[in-house]
Automatic annotation (TrEMBL):
<dbReference type="GO" id="GO:0006032">
    <property type="term" value="P:chitin catabolic process"/>
</dbReference>
<keyword id="KW-0732">Signal</keyword>
<feature type="domain" description="GH18">
    <location>
        <begin position="29"/>
        <end position="389"/>
    </location>
</feature>
<protein>
    <submittedName>
        <fullName>Chitinase 2</fullName>
    </submittedName>
</protein>
<dbReference type="Pfam" id="PF00704">
    <property type="entry name" value="Glyco_hydro_18"/>
</dbReference>
<dbReference type="InterPro" id="IPR001579">
    <property type="entry name" value="Glyco_hydro_18_chit_AS"/>
</dbReference>
<dbReference type="GO" id="GO:0005576">
    <property type="term" value="C:extracellular region"/>
</dbReference>
<dbReference type="InterPro" id="IPR017853">
    <property type="entry name" value="GH"/>
</dbReference>
<keyword id="KW-0326">Glycosidase</keyword>
<keyword id="KW-0378">Hydrolase</keyword>
<feature type="signal peptide">
    <location>
        <begin position="1"/>
        <end position="17"/>
    </location>
</feature>
<dbReference type="InterPro" id="IPR001223">
    <property type="entry name" value="Glyco_hydro18_cat"/>
</dbReference>
<dbReference type="InterPro" id="IPR011583">
    <property type="entry name" value="Chitinase_II/V-like_cat"/>
</dbReference>
<dbReference type="GO" id="GO:0005975">
    <property type="term" value="P:carbohydrate metabolic process"/>
</dbReference>
<dbReference type="InterPro" id="IPR050314">
    <property type="entry name" value="Glycosyl_Hydrlase_18"/>
</dbReference>
<comment type="similarity">
    <text>Belongs to the glycosyl hydrolase 18 family.</text>
</comment>
<dbReference type="GO" id="GO:0004568">
    <property type="term" value="F:chitinase activity"/>
</dbReference>
């Protein structure tokens, strides 16, 4: 009997300690990792499979993108990948290994446009039908939350009433998702004109659990410029916004710092220079830079493409802009603005100084997930985690 009691106590002590070991820290800074699910179609070493996902680096993981169908409700944009190949199911299964991670489904994105979201949000009836479909979708596929990536209210075919209708939509989404213990997040662009025109900041932040600042794509079109500047360089006379000014504006407009998440890019923006003899900031350009082998898109290079080029090809000149927390590289007529481990850590220190909610990362599939450049897989995400925790 004594031996049985000893075993009983030890057994339940083990169970209790195991359960305590998986308790999720409530005050941990967020690392929100977006995944572009279309990256499974990239060629060669750029091909990113679900098997590559490592949630050790992420507190939140966002599967992108669902869309709106002709009936005005949520639907998969890639039924083959999401359903037939089991994309949704496989990503949710990662929670068995990482029970503290929150896995969200995002709707929208740049390619989805704005107009059909504007139309959906225009009437109470259409908003309710959409929200009901979202809740059903999230519950059915067992996501922990929903990310509404409408880019952007009042813009790109939207109407002025989107600003008010967006708040009504968020209010309804928050009401229906929160009662089922699901979270609601959304991004905002790092563009003060769009922010002022499209959003009632204080009300928006009241209904969202996290507000992800898209801290990138701030470059100019006609001359070289940094696409994710933290602060303005001393030599820069322009009044163009920086991530610092965007954060300041959102805080002054009534958004709590406990909800603001600063976005960091795992990609660069590139140009083709007008003259290879003029390659500093503000140099004239002919157009977008050459496409990479993986992303195959002019003017865009994943960090995995950038670090491989700069590491393996001689002749690249790299400049570190310390105020901007950014780097640019030039060779011949090609010019790239990007972040690396050093600049990423600088931005994380800014988040800690301002006591913001955390970091957002776009996107996990363009980090050097193979570790080809420096022998460490996910060097940017690793740098974020090292500096944050």
């Amino acid at each position: 009997m004594k031996n049985f009691l000893t075993f009983f106590v030890l057994f339940w002590s083990f169970i209790a300690s195991d359960q305590l070991g998986t308790e999720c820290p409530a005050d941990k800074k967020a690392v929100v990792c977006y995944w572009g699910s279309w990256s499974i179609y990239r060629p060669g070493l750029g091909n990113y499979k679900i098997e590559h996902i490592d949630l050790e680096y992420c507190t939140h993981f966002v599967y992108t993108f669902a869309g709106i169908n002709l009936n005005g409700v949520i639907d998969s944009l890639d039924y083959h990948n999401d359903i037939n190949l089991g994309g949704y199911k496989k990503v949710i299964a990662l929670k068995e290994q990482y029970p503290c991670a929150k896995i969200l489904l995002a709707i929208g994105g740049w390619n989805e446009g704005s107009e059909k979201y504007s139309f959906m949000a225009e009437t109470e009836e259409r908003r309710k039908a959409f929200v009901e479909s979202v809740v059903r979708f999230v519950i059915h596929f067992n996501f922990d939350g929903f990310d509404i990536n409408w880019e952007y209210p009042t813009e790109r075919g939207g109407v002025d009433s989107d600003k008010e209708n967006y708040i009504l939509l968020l209010q309804l989404l928050h009401s229906e998702l929160s009662k089922r213990k699901r979270i609601l997040t959304a991004p905002v662009p790092a563009n003060l004109y769009i922010i002022s025109k499209a959003y009632e900041i204080e009300e928006m932040c009241n209904y969202l659990d996290l507000v992800n600042i898209m801290g990138y794509d701030m470059q100019q079109r006609d001359k070289t410029s940094v696409h994710a500047p933290l602060k303005r360089e001393n030599s820069d006379p322009s009044k163009k916004e920086t991530l610092e000014t965007v954060v300041q504006h959102l805080l002054k407009s009534g958004c709590s710092k406990s909800k603001l998440v600063l976005g960091i890019p795992a990609f660069g923006r590139s140009y083709t220079l007008y003259s290879s003899y003029s390659s500093g900031l503000g140099a004239l350009v002919k157009g977008l830079g050459k496409p990479g082998n993986f992303s195959q898109s002019e003017g865009f290079l994943g960090y995995n493409e950038i670090c491989e080029q700069v590491r393996s090809e001689n002749g690249w000149k790299i400049t570190y802009l310390r105020n901007s927390a950014a780097k640019y590289a030039s060779k011949g007529d090609q010019w790239i603005s990007y972040d690396d481990a050093e600049t990423v850590q600088q931005k994380v220190r800014f988040v800690k100084e301002k006591d913001l909610a955390g970091i957002m990362f776009w996107s996990i599939d363009t980090d050097d997930f193979h570790g080809d450049c420096f022998g460490e897989s996910y060097p940017l995400l690793s740098a974020i985690n090292r500096e944050l925790y």
